[in-house]
Amino acid sequence: MTQRQTARIAVVTVSDRASRGEYEDRSGPAAEAWLREVVISDMQVTRHVIPDGREGVAATLRKLADGEGADLILISGGTGPAPRDETPEALADVIEKELAGFGEEMRRASLAEGVPTAILSRQAAGIRDACLMILLPGKPAAIATCLNAVFAAVPYCLDLIGAARIETDPAKIAAFRPKA
User: Fold this and answer.
1) What is the pLDDT of residues 96-111, one digit of tens each?
2) Which of 1, 11, 35, 101 is the most buried (most CB within 10 A)?
3) Contacts of 36-39 spanning 24+ positions with Cβ under 8 A
């Protein structure tokens, strides 16, 4: 199977207030800027701002993965313990396989930066067919911390599931692919 040359990456911000225009989405642009700094292969990035809510988030993730053929979806927001924070549940509704190590490593990285509330964040990741979905915190500064912690494994994961191949700038993130 030949991998597609241009990766389709969706960045989804989950926020009631940002989706209503009450404040500017800063996490989506932070995630896209991080990608553009680290990924050196061709990619097409789309950004979406949607309200909180399990059903709506799940529907958006299905549409992006199944209908639009996203290879990678970065989801930001709705990861805390507040009543409307249901993004992890929405992710669980749509993925076929959970990749628990992503959430564990992202929380560890945030704790190492001295953020004691990192234990309240419910970051996660999983795959649906040939799409990797990574759930990040909503705070823009935490997005870089979390992506720096896990992204070395992302290119090989995309290879394994049959998604588009991506390459990273090794001076920023050295992608790990086992030697054959």
Assistant:
1) 999 999 999 999 999 9
2) 11
3) 37/169, 37/172, 38/147, 38/151, 38/168, 38/169, 38/172, 38/173, 39/7, 39/166, 39/167, 39/168, 39/169
